[in-house]
Amino acid sequence: MSTATIAITLFGIAFGLTQTRYSHVSRHFAMFLAAVAVNNAPEAFGRMVERMDAAYLNVIELVVWFPSSLALAPLFWLYVFSLTSPDDQRPVRIRRHLFLPGLAMLVGVLIAVTSDTASAFLDTDTETLPSGWSLGLLVILAVLQLAVFVQIPVYLVLIVRRLLRYRVMLRDVYSSTEAHELRWIYMIGGLGALFWLASVGIQFLVLDATRTTALALVFSVTSVVGLALVATTTLWGLRQRPPLLPDFDDTGQTDMTVTSQPAQPSEKYEKSALSAEASARIARKLRAAMEQDHLHRDPNLSLWTLARHVGASPNYVSQTFSEEIEASFFDFVNSYRIAEAKELLAKTDNTVLTITYEVGFNARSSFYNAFKRLTGETPTSYRKTLSHPAGLDDGPA
Asked: Of 17, 41, 221, 339, which one has the greatest count of Cβ atoms within 10 A?
């Protein structure tokens, strides 16, 4: 399992480092995969290291395996952060996220270079109790071992919070967000939680020497889940591009601004050169694009496509939505979709599913949610309340 895991991660690292587009995201993903590979190295080369002295083997595990274990969650968090950011942003105080793996590395190195410390508590045959410097390192090591099991759920919470904020940010640039919501990360999180539970189970079973069969079973399940977790993460991670960055094939304009932190319009655009008159002119063009050109019927409509259509920069269009129209791009487009859907429900006998696609939605569930949010009722109930729909005898439109 460990050998297969390393093979998968090495492929992912090589592929990620060769990417030129969105290279910052690929680099962060490669760093995470590298930590996974290092973490599996001791077991993958188990037969080789078994020939070494037990004390040296423990030192290798402390220097290689233990720090990489503490680096997995922060590095995956860094990848998710860069994937859901509008530019090459990094988390605030990134050193804070790397403190635990750095401390673990330092402790491992100190143990490795201090022979009396290593023999004090790494050599299982010695009866010497640690004291002084050795005792201090032992206490830090014990705390770090406990921190591994606390760290994973903490970062799972941070990732979920980041994804929820990211879903709100998507509404500033996409009229349909389903294809960009990175739901695969929730599956990765579920597998990660299962892996964490299995790892905790192993620690409890290790304390009871009589449960060797249960320990072997849980360890096997953990190995399988770990391999599935790495394979799934690599498969999906290599296919991703930052959705909040413009598609260069669609538009050459890259001056799009989407902030990852909530801000008031006056703060967000305080340095903008867009005048009130120009903003009102852009707003008229945006409404004309919906009312006359019916761009809302395009399920893949993005802010960059709309900006190109009205002949304005994405920055200015975004500012116009925020200050002049006072609605997100998502809500603005969907309001026209729902308005047309209401008209079709009243004047035609087209099915709800047909109307869903006609007005620009790419999923029935999205249509129902948007319709109920704006009207307070479902499309079916809205049609039933129309006792005499105008134009019903005209047939399908």
From this structure: 41
Query: What is the predicted pLDDT for the residue at 294?
Result: 95
pLDDT at res. 261: 43
Give the ranges where the chain is alpha helix by DSSP (H). Answer: 2-17, 23-44, 46-49, 54-60, 66-83, 94-97, 99-113, 115-121, 133-170, 184-206, 212-237, 265-268, 276-291, 303-310, 314-320, 329-347, 352-358, 364-375, 379-385
Report whether 138 contacts 130 (CB < 8 A): yes
Residue among 286, 336, 283, 330 at smallest CA distance from 306:
286
Q: Would you list the DSSP string of 129-143?
A: PP-THHHHHHHHHHH
Give the tokens for residue 73.
């969650």
Instruction: Find the Cα–Cα–Cα–Cα dihedral 358, 363, 365, 369, rounded to 10°.
Output: -60
DSSP state, 180? G
Cα 346–chain centre separation: 41
CB atoms within 10 A of CB 320: 26
Residues comprising the chain, all counted: 397
Q: Are 24 and 241 in contact (CB under 8 A)?
A: no
The helix/strand/coil state of 6 is: helix
pLDDT number for residue 252: 47
CA distance 107 to 95: 17
In this prediction the pTM is: 0.82
Task: Choose among 289, 305, 301: nearest CA to 361.
Answer: 301
Beta bridge partners of 302: 174
The span from the CA of 353 to the CA of 71, in Å, is 47
Question: Mind listing the domains of the chain with CATH numbers?
Answer: 2-237 (1.20.1070), 273-394 (1.10.10.60)
DSSP symbols for 40-104:
HHHHHTHHHHTTS-HHHHHHHIIIIIHHHHHHHHHHHHHHHHHHTSSSS---TTHHHHTHHHHHH
341 burial (CB, 10 Å; 0-12 / 13-18 / 19+) is buried
